[in-house]
Amino acid sequence: MAFFVLFRAGSEQAPARGAPTKGYATEIGRAMLAYGFQEAGFPAIMGFALSQHGASRRVMEKIGMTHLYDKKDHEHTRSFYRIEQHDFNHLM
Fold it and tell me: Does pTM top 0.85 for this prediction?
């Protein structure tokens, strides 16, 4: 079983390039992983974002997820990430 997490900020919500951020996406991501592993008992969690959304991809990397592959569909390329429960436990 997998639990999918999508990190995405619309252009109207995203800070200007180079502007400092408050780290809310990282905090939320870590909380979602903790819930998925500790409460729901998932063995692994996957996430994806549009490949061109670098900030979303960086958040997944910051919370310990590993890039698996990119997949192109009709219009977009998506980047897929995954983290195993034992890897998450080592980060905590």
Answer: no
